[in-house]
Design a protein that fits this description.
The structure is a single chain. This protein is of the alpha/beta class. The protein has 14 helices and eight strands. The protein has a domain of 203 residues: Rossmann fold. It is globular and about 80 Å long.
Length: 316
């Protein structure tokens, strides 16, 4: 009798905790969306509502953000360095920032198609394209799928080749269909600010996180439940997609400028950009000594210089 009563009490406590978790996750999501409203405009591509921030005048330049990000990673400080001579189009990938998700898990080719559609809808038929980190894989997919719609390619700390490190425990938990139903709401509801600070510091390491970065970036938007799951599922599916593109690199003909820090422990220089520079005949690589995974924040002038080199190599 006592055992049954204890089980009932435990069940009620768990139900109350779960209700509190879902409530808190909803509150945090609503707060994030209120604090970080859309900065740009919406464009519908193939039925998907996409969000892009457009600024500046000059040659068209499309910026594609990485995992756990949004266009705000660029608009926080980087795009202001470009708008005097480029029309910059920073796009939220589907399911991130204010862009709607695709049904199911988007591939890098899906992302490339939608971002390309945004650019075309905004009149950028043959832009220079920069992709950072996961966004670099998306940019490579664009170059593979529709090379004639891209004037030049700039890859910043971009995964381009197979790797043998296992998927992290966090991504395994948040990408597994059953476990994510428990783990993702818990993360969305209860992840403390200290954990966000630590994760951000790890991405920037060995370089410091710039003052004001998190406030401008809006990490709460990334911690929404749907975005957490999309991010994890995309990360879990990236390796086979990147592996399948390697054979096409010798066929790429557009100018390619790659920039990569030699202290990057998220996407390793020796595994990715160095072999890409050997295999893609038009690729040029700038190695950044002592720089980690976020060059456009730590040494933005080096990334701007790569964009300018790509523009100089690409015919108008």
């Amino acid at each position: 009798m006592r055992l049954g009563r204890n089980a009932l009490i435990l069940g009620l406590l768990l139900a109350a905790f779960w209700a509190a978790t879902l409530w808190r996750a909803s509150v945090r999501e609503a707060a994030a969306e209120a604090d970080y409203p859309p900065q740009g405009q919406f464009v519908t591509v193939d039925g998907v509502k996409m969000h892009a921030v457009v600024a500046g005048q000059g040659r068209d330049l499309v910026l594609i953000h990485g995992a756990s990000g949004s266009a705000r990673d660029f608009t926080a400080s980087f795009t202001a360095r470009l708008t005097d001579r480029y029309r910059v189009i920073a796009v939220d990938r589907p399911g991130f920032g204010w862009s709607a998700p695709l049904p199911g898990v988007a591939s890098i080719h899906d992302d490339a198609r939608l971002v390309r559609g945004v650019a075309a809808a905004l009149g950028a038929d043959r832009p220079i394209v920069l992709g950072h980190s996961y966004g670099g894989a998306v940019a490579l997919a664009w170059a593979e799928d529709a090379p004639n719609t891209m004037a030049a390619l700039v890859l910043e700390a971009a995964p381009s080749h197979p790797w043998n490190t296992p998927l992290s425990t966090f991504y395994r938990l948040t990408s597994t269909p059953f476990l994510r139903r428990v783990v993702v709401p818990l993360v969305a509801a209860w992840l403390p600010e200290s954990a966000i600070d630590a994760a951000t510091a790890e991405v920037f390491a060995p370089n410091p996180v710039p003052e004001g970065y998190l406030a401008a970036f809006g990490a709460g938007m990334t911690l929404r439940r749907q975005t957490l799951y999309i991010n994890a599922a995309e990360r879990a599916g990236l390796l086979p997609q990147v592996s399948a593109m390697v054979a096409t690199y010798p066929l790429l003909k557009m100018p390619i400028e790659a920039v990569h820090g030699d202290a990057d422990t998220t996407v390793y220089l020796s595994i990715h950009s160095e072999p890409l520079a050997r295999e893609a005949p038009t690729a040029r690589l700038a190695v950044l000594p002592g720089i980690g995974h976020m060059p456009h924040h730590v040494v933005p002038e080096a990334v701007v210089a790569a964009i300018d080199r790509a523009a100089a190599r690409a015919p108008e």
